[in-house]
Amino acid sequence: MDDRKKEQAGTMKRRTFVKGAALAGAVAAAGPLLPRWARGAEKTQKELEMEKAAMEIGEAYKQDPVAMRALEAAKAITKDKKDLVLTIFMPAGTVINFMPFTKIWEEETGCKLKFFEVVNVEVDQKLMQEAVTKSGKFDVLPTPPLSLVDLVDAKLLMDIGPLAEKLNPELDGPNGIIKPMDRLTMYYQGKLWGINTDMDIFSLYLRDDMLLDPQNKEAFEKKYGYPLDTPQTYKQIFDQIKFFDKPDQDFAGGFVYRKRKLCWMGWLQQFASTGTWMFDQDMKPNITGDAGLQVLEDQMAIQPFCNYKTQSYNWNDIYKNFAAGKGYTAFGWPSLGKYANAPTTSQVVGKVRSAVVCGTEVNGTLVRAAQASLGRCLSVSNYSKNPELAYCYIQFATAPIVSAYAVSKPTGLFDCYRQSHITNPVVEAAYPKGFPPVLLENMKVAVPGFFLRGGKEYEDALDAQLNAAYAGAIKPKEALEKVAEEWEKITDRQGREGQIARWKELRDFYPDNFKKVAG
Amino acid sequence: MWKKLTSLPILMVAPVQLLIWFMVIFPTVVLVWLAFCYWTPQTGKSWWHAEWTWFSNFYQLLFDDPRFLWSIIRTIIIFFICISVELVAGMIMALLFQGSFFGKKALVSILIAPMMIIPLVIGQSFYMLFLAKGPVNQVISWLTFHKFQLDWLSHPIWAMAPIILGEIWNWTPLVFLIFMSGLTTVPQNQIRAAQGLGASPVQIFFRISLPILKPLILLVVVIRGMEIFKIFDLVYVLTRGGPGNATETITMYMYNQGIEFMRVSYVAASSFIILALVVIGAVRVLKPLQYQLLED
């Protein structure tokens, strides 16, 4: 019996069966490749999330004149053009911040948005690679303040000053970007290179329930001779970390950043609180003195009471463990507070107290310094094919009301940066109780990071030696001397005169108490 | 007519030649140019407008950059440890798999599986294994009857262990495979003659098999050596060169300088130093084979 006869007779030859199965498999595998109409009208997870987020913002954006000006200008550009797409380059974990208004932008302007995500640690490299290749692949870039100088010098960013003058993104005034760091995160050489979309400044987070516990209060006072309350100095926070550390219960006194590339933050913040300049006026490093050494020794001494005695915690490990209720305190960015306050990610909702960063008492003056080296602003690429449209998107995305919805996304990494965010109820609800005023207080004592040419090199040189010292590979004094030696080389390589001029600018941004002590 | 005949072959070869120009020669020329210049994208200039600085990059690398020299030393240490363990383990495994026995094919397939895994995946697996609260510490705790919690990846000395172990685990199967096929080429009549004269298996291995395998061993050393000098994935995933710079290998150093800090011309110079080192090393290792290779 041949194949046809077999089939007609209701039986099937093996080869025919295999052919049929292969065809069915190929169709199933190609399913996702088929156009939407061929697959049915089901929506992707991303589309559903965008719709949900757009519902949250609703018509609120129409009350935002900054956003409306940007939309009107964008509509004028897209009016006679079809298939316009803007490519937005973003660090991973931040696209969720843009969800609330992505759909609105696309529907209002007809311009599609394509997000290109890269893990945080590789963003700067990709930006610099774009400066070299000049591909024009991205329209909107996430500029970190630490690399702003380098990216401007590499001619990657477009001066958006003239466009901002025309469309008024309200960078000053009651809706403006929080002062004074805005001058360093968006401006360089008197020109505007981007608009803030995130302002990362350290705050202190504590377990409120443990602080309020009467038994803890009594035991602490008995042991240390002063009442248990929000710590004001580093000595007090270190006492509390030691007091609450319970190794037998796997409960850490605190969480500190000890992984490579993160070490510099804690040391730099405490060092600044000693009222010592990082560099003197000639850019000679000032870190090898007693103040620097004492801070490093303090940081090393507290280590056994933190992170379950491991050093390999990344920042997200700290977020997860703190939100899981596995430790008492952590310094962190505003997003840590948001993360610990979200029921979807946290087991300590309502139990977190945010506070102004600790300080050091120097000659009777309490000097506080909040580390403010990170954050991002949205910039337009010099090689964008649609620079004006890209600018409109930036203005829309960072408009006062629109951005309030953006920064309030609990798992998004971008945080408050406009004055109006502080009083916005949507934002207030996203963060621990009483956080917005704390953020403003921390802003007042913010110290700029290495916002110099080659800033990343300075940062890495410090980080490598601190990391080695924390691991016990090198003595503290030797570590700081090596950093100073390396910083000198970097300064010479980058051009001492230019660095001195920039450092002079940065010194003006140090908090008043710091300047009073440091002179 | 003669002109036509000569131009035709040239025309036919030209596309390939042009491709080679662009794929190999052009980037090499750019690299040489950059090695003698000072250039980073931050200068705002195109690379062909870079400032010519003669041997400044080379001088700085060799006499004023201990981080660079230490990264070379570390890579050489990894090379010696890995190559020694891989050669010994690969040879022992190959000897054990001589002859035929039940399940040999299945066992060989299992043993060579690690070399088919992407190093990045191995890095992730080893990262989880060597966490302070990971399985490795747990097993050591069981064996020693007390809580063992070494933070391997942050320890100034032991951080190197997961990297080396990952590399050995990844590539010993390749060495095993090469030796296993090499052992099949050892003439059986020589072995039988030695056995007839009363030689022990150890004597047969050291007097007959090993000398015959010598060229193969040297080739393995060169091939693996070149690969170890390129080790990157494991270091990047496991330690990123830390703690401090304690595990920074030469590729990690070049990544940091070239990609993170964009010191492109400086890294171009360092690549030539590494190239010279690898070529000298390879020639030195292959020297005993020089005459044999030439004769062949």
Supply database-style keywords.
heterodimer; A: 519 residues; alpha/beta; D-Maltodextrin-Binding Protein, domain 2; 2 domains; three-stranded antiparallel sheet; 26 helices; B: mainly alpha; MetI-like fold; two-stranded antiparallel sheet
TL;DR?
The complex is a heterodimer of chains A (519) and B (296). Chain A is α/β, with parallel strands linked by helices and 519 residues long. Chain A contains 26 helices and 15 strands.
Report the average pLDDT across residues of chain A. 88
The major beta sheet of chain B can be summarized as: 2 strands, antiparallel
- The fourth-level CATH homologous superfamily of the largest domain in chain A is Periplasmic binding protein-like II
SSE pattern of chain B: HEEHHHHHHHHHHHH
- N- to C-terminal separation of chain B? 42 Å
CATH superfamily of chain B: MetI-like
Number of helices of chain A: 26
CATH fold node name of chain B: MetI-like fold
Please work out how many helical segments of chain B DSSP would assign: 13
The beta-strand count of chain B equals 2
What structural category arises from helix and sheet content of chain B? mainly alpha
Radius of gyration of CA atoms of chain A, rounded to a whole number: 27 Å
Tell me the overall shape of chain A: globular
Number of E strands of chain A: 15
Outline the low-pLDDT stretches of chain A: 7-12, 31-35, 37-41
CATH architecture level-2 label of the largest domain in chain A = 3-Layer(aba) Sandwich
Structure report:
Helix content of chain A is 51%, strand content 12%. With 519 residues, chain A is α/β, with parallel strands linked by helices. In chain A, the strands form 6 sheets. Chain A has a 4-stranded mixed beta sheet with strand order 8-9-7-10. In chain A, helix 5 (65-78) runs antiparallel to helix 18, helix 6 (95-109) packs antiparallel against helix 19 and helix 23 packs antiparallel against helix 24 (476-494). The termini of chain A are far apart. With 296 residues, chain B is an all-alpha fold. Chain B has a single domain (47-295), classed as MetI-like (MetI-like fold), CATH 1.10.3720. Helix content of chain B is 71%, strand content 1%. Chain B contains 13 helices and 2 strands. Chain B has a two-stranded antiparallel ribbon. Chain B is globular. The mean pLDDT of chain B is 92. At the A-B interface, helix 7 and helix 23 of A face helix 11 of B.
